[in-house]
Amino acid sequence: MEGMRKGIYILPNLFTAGSLFAGFYCMVSTLNYDYKTAALWILASSIFDGLDGKVARLTGTASKFGVEFDSLADLVSFGAAPGLLMYAWALKPFGRIGWLAAFLFVACAALRLARFNVQVETVESKRFVGLPTPAAASMVSATVLLFYHFGWPSSFKKLAILLLIYFLALLMVSNVRYYSFKDPELIKRQPFAFLVLAVILLIVIAAEPVIMLFVIFCGYMLSGPVGYVLTLPRRLRLKRAMHRGHEELRPPGKK
Known about the structure:
The chain crosses the membrane at residues 7-27, 97-116, 128-148, 160-179, 191-207, 213-232. The chain is mostly helical.
């Protein structure tokens, strides 16, 4: 209450409100059967969500109120909104299985956000534990846009979305680590080739935005499991080494 009496920072919370508005309008578009527009508003919400934290850090206006407001907005924009979109667009024909799958996505998004708030001070800032909710929602959005782009049949759509929902829900609550793009090295001087690659990437995205957005979000989604598998031998060796170290430090006669 003391913090509220002193006032709140307007600028970062205004971006959070923009993210919340975009998520709400996604649900409005879904109820109006305008699923393509709904998918675009999820992407707009993720842009606002990415800006609010950066604005707060750059301007030194981060606050406990902003963190809580951001989490509540994320649950609406990246939990409830994509869950409703997926159910109305593809999962409704499955009946109970369909709405339960959509609910699982919403529930896992809530659990992911709650865990993030608890671990925010103890987890490495360069890595997220579990797939971030904006990335999961953006993957849903990119999938909807891809189906509209190619005009794929509804039977394929239903099965693909059902499988995607369970996979995204599992990744959000998993211990798989994802790159957070919060590395300070990213904003420091980089080789000239990096700029050339960035320009080429922008050109490719502009040429085929729907396909490239799907490829980017799909690549990020799969980067966590792939990285987990590739680093598994190293982590197992480290675990065995730590176990041997504990055995050597254990007093004689102790089990």
